[in-house]
Design a protein that fits this description.
GO biological process, one term: cytochrome complex assembly
EC number: 1.11.1.15
Largest sheet: 5 strands, mixed
Radius of gyration: 23 Å
Keywords: Cytochrome c-type biogenesis, Disulfide bond, Oxidoreductase, Peroxidase, Redox-active center
Organism: Hymenobacter swuensis DY53
Distance between the termini: 77 Å
CATH topology of the largest domain: Glutaredoxin
Strand order of the largest sheet: 13-12-11-14-15
Structural class: alpha+beta
Shape: elongated
CATH class of the largest domain: Alpha Beta
Main location: other
């Protein structure tokens, strides 16, 4: 009866519990501001606090779902990440590192925090520096084991989506984990995103489906719409300036473009870069004469999501009628297919 008269009582009753982060900072002047942020199509500030004379600060708020949060100290470029769940009661320390510009970060208070720090300290360093790793990479093996042991955690879904799914060699494992995560954590945004992209990728893998249309700005400014190339064979190439295999493939694509453009082939390169400067530099260095369409949203690229792109390089070959012919043709396999289609 009371909730019928005062609906806000029901809202208050189901509000998620507050999270609290107690921080202790050394080597940081009193009055320094520390921000708790989250990236979701742009940086969002969740809370901020001022460091007191004893080096203490407290951040708090409410979350509907778990996230990977970031701590940023004013005046510093470095961010310090940690998983944050509704109701978490965490503590963290930031201590000055001798002769270094960044602070040493340590967090405590949840299994998720322990897992994340294990990933950052022990696993990620073995994966760093190469866009596409061999399947036997030790870091990938340890990451698979961590995810497999913890299928009911937010981090299992986060690490699968943001790290394992980016590796071409891990797609079979990602497919199996996507099924597990959909069963264990169906409401989690990361699990839903994996399921959607995996389903979309499976459709385009089979061929025969209409190619999803998209409109993006080009390198020269005007917008480009994929369906404007109807009547030609189109190779949509998802790539990034930081992707070694993508850059290695570009000279071969340039040769194929010169050979088959007059016969009806067009190439459209869709970048999953987030840094416009690095993207423009790569386009110039690799001398790519065909259509370049960046939206500079990284892995949040709407076009990449439309095509279920989980890793780069990914290619999609589209027929003149707008139907998908095949996915992930590269190298000699792509040359042979084009030679048959455009003799």
């Amino acid at each position: 009866m009371l909730t019928a008269l005062f609906p806000w009582l029901l809202t208050a009753a189901v509000a998620p519990p507050a999270y609290v982060l107690q921080g202790q900072l050394t080597g940081v002047p009193a009055g320094t501001t520390i921000y708790l942020t989250h990236y979701q199509s742009g940086w969002q500030t969740l809370d901020s606090a001022t460091v007191d004379a004893a080096g203490h600060c407290e951040l708090r708020g409410q979350l509907a779902d778990p996230i990977l949060a970031s701590l940023k100290v004013s005046g510093q470029k470095v961010i310090y990440q940690l998983p944050l769940h509704p109701g978490d009661q965490l503590s963290f320390t930031l201590e000055q590192e001798p002769q270094k510009q960044f602070l040493r970060f340590k967090a405590r208070g949840s299994v998720g925090v322990e897992q994340w720090q294990q990933f950052q300290q022990d696993i990620y360093p073995q994966m760093f520096g190469v866009a596409q790793l061999p399947a036997k990479n030790r870091g990938l093996r340890e990451l698979r084991a961590l995810v497999r042991r913890t299928p009911d955690t937010f981090l299992a879904a986060y690490l699968t989506k943001n790290y394992l799914s980016r590796q071409a060699s891990q797609q079979a494992f990602v497919d199996s984990m996507t099924t597990v995560l959909a069963q264990r954590q169906p409401a989690l945004a990361e699990a839903q995103a994996l399921a959607t992209r995996t389903h979309t990728a499976a459709l385009t893998e089979k061929g025969g489906e209409p190619a999803p249309d998209f409109t993006l700005p080009t390198a020269t400014g005007p917008s480009f719409t994929l369906s404007s190339l109807r009547g030609k064979y189109v190779l949509v190439d998802f790539w990034a300036s930081w992707c070694g295999p993508c850059r290695a493939e570009n000279p071969r694509l340039r040769t194929l473009y010169q050979q088959y453009q007059a016969k009806g082939l067009e190439i459209v390169s869709v970048s999953v870069d987030a840094d416009g400067g690095k993207w423009r530099k790569a386009v110039g260095q690799d001398q790519l004469p065909w259509t370049q369409v960046p939206d500079l949203k990284g892995w949040d690229s709407p076009a990449a999501q439309l095509y279920g792109v989980l890793a780069v390089p990914t290619t999609v070959l589209i027929a003149p009628d707008g139907l998908i012919l095949s996915r992930n043709l590269r190298g000699e396999a792509l040359e042979k297919r084009l030679s048959k289609l455009l003799p």
